[in-house]
Amino acid sequence: MKWQDKLVRLQRLACGLNCDLKVQIPQVCKTGGRLISSSCYGQSGALFLGLNPGDVEGVSSVFDVERNTASPLLTWAELKYWRTCGIFLKQAPGLLDWFDGGVTSGFVCPWRTRNRDELYRLNRNPRGLIFRYSGDILAQMVEDHEARLLVVTGFCGPRMIEDVLHLPDVRHSELRCTDGPYDMHPYRYSGWDLTLNGRHLKVLQIPHFSRAVSPSRLQPCADWLSRKLRLA
């Protein structure tokens, strides 16, 4: 299947789930969301994931399922998260070229909330629905990319991936830390093994760029990520 057809299939899935959420949890849909943040889809075996879209003040209620028109580093250069992400990717040889060379960037949960606490609170009513739908989307993205690697920002990222992907009698996910953690929060980074329905994936957790902003503190993680990606 061509990547364009895979993207259309994902967009239809996401739109259907979003329509249901409008009925089940109207509050979530007031602030919309974003399906992917990159200009490409289905062209590499890696996904670069944020936790979920932020910056709820002044945003529309649209759930945007379209590809970005350029690198997110350019489109949202004024936002702290993407500005710091760009700084991070320049800290080690090859990282920026890797990111802009076909990697799909998106979110563990594509629906926007003010923070992680609000996301977990909304997920309790109806119980687990946001995570279930997020897992449906993420599992499809993993399949579309035949992914073997997930890079996720935020110290809670790996556990959140496991939470959204595990669905009794439908999907089984199991997570195990195999490297680290290194450094202190919010600069913590670590490596994990994830099994999803028999598929083995590596999860590399790096700092959240809205909180970890010091280039010198980010340098060791950038060097570590570059080695893990075999860029150095």
Structure summary:
40% of the residues lie in helices and 19% in strands. It is of the alpha/beta class and 232 residues long.
Q: Overview of this structure, please?
A:
The protein is α/β, with parallel strands linked by helices and 232 residues long. It has a single domain (3-227), classed as Uracil-DNA Glycosylase, subunit E, CATH 3.40.470. It is 40% helix and 19% strand. It is built from 9 helices and 8 strands. It has helices at residues 3-24, 26-29, 72-75, 80-89, 95-99, 116-123, 129-145, 157-165, 215-228; strands at residues 33-34, 46-50, 63-64, 104-107, 149-153, 173-182, 189-196, 199-206. The strands form 2 sheets. Strands 4-2-5-8-7-6 form a 6-stranded mixed sheet, sandwiched between helices. Strands 1-3 form a two-stranded parallel ribbon. Helix 4 (80-89) crosses helix 9 (215-228). The protein is globular. The chain starts with a helix and ends with a helix. The model has no long low-confidence stretch (mean pLDDT 92).
Q: Mind sketching the topology for me?
A:
Blueprint: H1 3-24, H2 26-29, E1 33-34, E2 46-50, E3 63-64, H3 72-75, H4 80-89, H5 95-99, E4 104-107, H6 116-123, H7 129-145, E5 149-153, H8 157-165, E6 173-182, E7 189-196, E8 199-206, H9 215-228
Parallel strand pairs: 1-3, 2-4, 2-5, 5-8
Antiparallel strand pairs: 6-7, 7-8
